[in-house]
Amino acid sequence: MAGALAVAVVTAGAVCARTLRLGARRQLVGRPSSGTGSALLSTLPDFLTASVLAAVVGVQLGWLPALGWYGPRWMVLPALSLGLPAGALLGRLLDDMLPGAFAEPWALAAAARGVPARSVARQALRRCVPGLLPNLGLFVVGLTGGAVAVEQVFDIPGLGRLTLQAAVAQDLPVLQAGTLALLLLAAAAGGLARLAARMLVGPALRDGALSSLHRPTPSRPTTLPLLYGGLLLGVIAFGLARDPLELDTTARLRSPSWAHPFGTDALGRDVLARVGHGALETLALAVAVSAAALVIGVVLGLLPRFSGPLLDTVNAVPPVLAGLLVAGIAGSGASTPALAVAAVAWAPLSAHTSALLQQERATTHLTATRGLGAGPLHLLRHELLPAVLPPVARHALLRLPGVALALAALGFLGLGAQPPSPEWGLLLSENQPYAERAPWAVLAPAAVLALLGALAVTAGGGVRWPGRAVRCETRARHEQRSKQREPVTASTVGETS
């Protein structure tokens, strides 16, 4: 967990480095948000990354050990497998909040007075990190109890794998002890995250002296979502025109060709056909689960006193363990992964909503609006939801590939759809033993998952509250005109304030 957290922090810093550099130099207005590379990283299945690193770096190159747990060298590959996707997602969330911090009055005054860009960037990080600390606490528990697939690939006797084996073997004492350890870790991580958030924000929460942390200007429209969406729809359309169950034992594990653009699997079935038909099941479940998680997360996030203890409890249950519980109650089937992931997918969105709501309630404009006689419903409809819902909706879009990965991970572990279903997790599980001999059979569904992640990231930048988007665009035009008329100086900033 410690190694994966270190990798995640470095990865998150690399993802938002461009925004920090441009924002500190007042060059961020009108620049499109970068995110394709982070989308690819965040959509890498940890079990697939672990398998590739173990086979290439550990076995073929022999640089690092691939199996066992005997010292620090055995920690590198598992930490990379877990930390890269988590860091990419954290970096994207931080990158989404930074433009709002750089548009606050303190940043404008600091730039006018010649404060070094490094100091401005450091203060912007301090302003945005408290909103992400609850999610960082969720990652701490997820990297411990949810690393079952990585522990299984690298043969690590971790807590998540131990709990899973105890659940399968119905070893109640070990299962109870493992679950209790995860609950205590979740409670400790959640409490430390909330305490650190209060310490970083300082007395501004008590005095109501914060500004609303949202993007000041809408992102510049790009054609990337149309490109990624067109590619994804094209792959699905071409796959649907083929038979996913047709067997040809004379064409086993054939490389990509005109007849089989994605190659064939170990039974001679067309991989493109199985990817296309599996998309209907995987994407439909992922979208439905993400929508349900968004609604539940926002509703419970608006009630932090009620959802706080529930959030810590749910956070301690890894999706794999939830899948076992659901499978024990409802039986193993295609709906088991969806029910298991839906039971825990709302927790990060609820934590994000609660963190943003806490800061939004401490803003000066909300205090002024309340002083003018506005009631709770008016504040919720016109102030709180327009500021909280768009970033949480963008967060849900960023997690859409993660939901698909969680469904795939449960299928990879045999808790979801059963053969001959073309569900993506089952495709990865079936073809993973042939990754060295026929890598295309594994890379094809992984590439489609990465394409889904790139689509979600690039499309998420356009999520705005309808009325607020128009006001932001008008404000951006006025700011652009004022910059063209006169240079920014300390006196002009003072007159404006």
Automatic annotation (TrEMBL):
InterPro entries linked: BP-dependent_transpt_permease, MetI-like, MetI-like_sf
SUPFAM superfamilies according to UniProt: MetI-like
Pfam families named in the record: BPD_transp_1 (PF00528)
Membrane topology of the entry: Multi-pass membrane protein
Signal peptide: none
Annotated GO biological process: transmembrane transport
Location of the region described as Disordered in the Swiss-Prot/TrEMBL record: 475-497
Keywords carried by this UniProt record: Cell membrane, Membrane, Transmembrane, Transmembrane helix, Transport
Superkingdom as given in the UniProt entry: Bacteria
Ranges that cross the membrane: 47-67, 74-91, 136-154, 174-201, 283-303, 396-418, 438-461
GO CC entries: plasma membrane
Biased composition (Basic and acidic residues): 475-486
Annotated ranges, domain ABC transmembrane type-1: 279-461
Compartments where located: Cell membrane
Family from the record: Belongs to the binding-protein-dependent transport system permease family.
Entry protein name: ABC transporter permease subunit
Source species of the chain: Streptomyces scabichelini
